[in-house]
Amino acid sequence: MKRLTLLRLIIIVGLLCLPLSVASAQNYANTNPNQLVSETAAETSVQDDTVSSVKTTSEEIDPDKILAEAGIPNNLAMANNSLETPSTYTFGINDVIDIAVARHPELTGQYAINNEGNIQYEFVGDVPLVGKTKKETTEIVKKLLSKYIISPDVTIKISGYNSKVVYVIGEVAGPGKIYMRGDTITVREALVQSGLPLLSANTPKGSLITPSMSGKAAQRNVNIHKLLIEGDLRENLVMKPGDTLYVPPTLMAKAMRVIQPVATPVGTAAGTARTVYTGGF
User: Fold this and answer.
1) Domain of 204?
2) What is the CATH number for 211?
3) Per the domain annotation, does 129 fall within a domain?
4) Do residue 191 and residue 229 come from a single domain?
5) What's this model's pTM, rounded to 2 decimal places?
């Protein structure tokens, strides 16, 4: 009888885990803001009452540990972040550009910036482009070709943005690298490109982590809930190459992920058990 009671309890816990797995696949794109505000308040209340022994402040997050677990190098120069500002794109190693010269197909082609920071351009040789904008590069190529061509008509396009990346990890629909199309990117834009936070995300406790050459990462708190739902642009921090945006899970999500692997096999076994009939038909 005791075994039967314990089995029923485990099955009930497993069934309670199902809504979490459904919620984890949903994100802010399908959420009513007013509903989310009330749900966030209720979630916070439940967490405070039931899991108060777990550390919850973002000051207690270890940014170096988060970067190490995500496999992100912590060896980049520290950068100051401010409110959103216009950004141009400067070329870096592995970027790819298309150079077109009107009426001169022999000078038209696609070129990758090598590890030395140069492109190998026909008839000219190595052209250093790291740190240059598209406009500056156009003027450089025109000046070089003017030695051979009268008034060269040069057009440059960027076909591969490969040199600058930021990372979004944690409770988002598509965690991973984001290739930047400017020298900076805002937190809001990074969240949109990563598919927005899941409903299992603890959005008030986000963190923007900036690696440093000293090996000790800098951390700034980001209230993603205020940014996305309330439109508070003070939370729309600027990310620079190498920065990481961490969206942590809620305490309830953490607890369910501990329980679910234990409860699911038992619930599955109970569902496939042989049914024994007694009595006549």
Assistant:
1) 1-88+164-265
2) 3.10.560.10
3) yes
4) yes
5) 0.70
Q: Are 152 and 32 contained in the same domain?
A: no
**How far apart, in whole angstroms, are the C-alpha atoms of residue 134 and residue 142?**
12
How far apart CA 103 and CA 69 sit, in angstroms, is 53
Domain end marker among 142, 160, 178: 160
Q: Rounded distance, CA 136 to CA 138, Å?
A: 5
Q: Please work out, in degrees rounded to the nearest 5, the angle formed at the alpha carbon of residue 248 by the alpha carbons of 207 and 211.
A: 35
**Residues 6 or more apart whose Cβ sits within 8 Å of residue 101:** 107, 108, 145, 149, 152, 153, 154, 155
Distance CA 110, CA 156 (A): 10
Kindly report the number of other CB atoms within 10 A of residue 259's CB atom: 15
Q: Mean pLDDT, 10 residues at a time, over the chain (281 residues)?
A: 55 53 58 55 46 42 71 52 60 97 94 96 93 96 94 96 97 96 96 96 97 90 96 96 97 87 60 49 42
How many distinct structural domains can be found in the chain?
A: 2
- 276 Cβ partners below 8 Å, 6+ apart? none
244 vs 263: CA distance, rounded Å? 34
Q: What is the DSSP string of 3-57?
A: HHHHHHHHHHHHHHHHHHHHHHT-BGGG--HHHHHHHHHHHHHHHHHH-TTS---
Tell me the H-state helices in the chain. 2-24, 33-50, 63-70, 134-145, 187-193, 224-228, 251-271
